[in-house]
Amino acid sequence: MNESAKVQIYNTMTRTKERFVPLKPGQVSMYVCGPTVYDYIHIGNARPVIFFDVVHRYLTFLGYDVKYVVNFTDVDDKLIRRAAEQGTTVTEVADKYIRAFLEDEAALGVKPATVHPRVTENIPEIVSFIESLIADGHAYESGGDVFFNTLSFPEYGKLSHQKLEELQHGIRIEVDERKKHPHDFVLWKAAKPGEIAWPSPWGEGRPGWHIECSAMIRKYLGDTIDIHGGGFDLPFPHHECEIAQSESLTGKPLAKYWMHNGYLNLGQEKMSKSLGNVVNVRDLLKKTSAEALRFVMLSTHYRNPLNYHEESIKQAENALERIGNCLGNLRHRMASLAPDGGAIDVETAERVTEICRAFMDKMNDDFNTPDAITQLFELVTLTNQVLQRPVVTRATLELLDGAFADFDAVLGVLPKPAVEAETLDEEIERLIQERQEARKAKNWARADEIRDLLTAKGIVLEDTPQGVRWKRK
What we know:
CATH architecture of the largest domain: 3-Layer(aba) Sandwich
Structural class: alpha/beta
Distance between the termini: 41 Å
CATH class of the largest domain: Alpha Beta
CATH superfamily of the largest domain: HUPs
CATH topology of the largest domain: Rossmann fold
């Protein structure tokens, strides 16, 4: 592990940046609230998926053993409605969209979570958790439902920095005469006729939204975890309710660091299904690369709002083309040199060290990916300068290539190197050879004409000090 790393995390709980010191040396426990699996994920969902993937990647890069849990909410009012609309079951709906999520996640270059627990696979743990809350006086049964008694937890509101009497009703909190207090929230919902349900001491029913995460965090990571993450819409009520449930039961802090990413807007407008402006990830990836989408997401600091528009994708594609050309030229030059390596150029090595140190400084500063990307382009500039030298050692180029690999291990934005075809058809081979002969004869007009013909066929030529390099568009 790089002990010199001094990661600072902005903690939503304290509203300050804090030095990251994990609960157990060398280990990190991280839980991020996952999707409710009733539809394909859209680019708003993709923002936390990509950002927390980078957190996972960077902490792993530093040498930590990261246990990363992302749950699936696979029973919920939305799934029940979707199943009714499609004439199928809640389980079939969940299975379909979990498969789709995992496919989209892989397509985005996201490293797999350690565990993807499903609510329906953890019903016994959830029931047991609720039973303990009732036994301790923190919850009560009313009309087949079970509610958490918010007055039993005086710190309710500490994450969102609101007093209980000032809280406004949030998502999934409903006024109900059966509640002892308006802000009490449901832990167990009595089943309605025809709904999916499980047996419990309070009758057939299913878990409420908030309890699932508390139970799964405890089961898979323990009473207190290092990092709890999610979108900016989750501190209240979801995470506030998680804290109340978990800390009432265990008497311990639920998480040491709370991280929340900002909203994503389409242009200046909030993305909404009611407005018909939702962009699904799998549809977008038919038009652009995963690296371009990741680049867009990481070009804005995670705590700031991100205004997404088509032009931002075009800008990302242009930036990635510049990086891709640099990498292609670097690897082409490396392939032309003998494998013995030679000595590393001292000046280049010092500059690489400076750039890598600056990259880590930015990542250590609350995962400042926009400024980290700036250092990636510093590396591109340096590499292009080195490639202009008539003489350079393979070891120097390998040093640069290794730095790119390190950056990509964290950000996952580098374009895949173009794969040159093993053979060209006879006509293209003939044209390339003819162009070479025209250049030797200083027949520049014919050489340019042949370049244009090859361009029309989708073949791009690059004249390098080591000869002609070509690639397909």
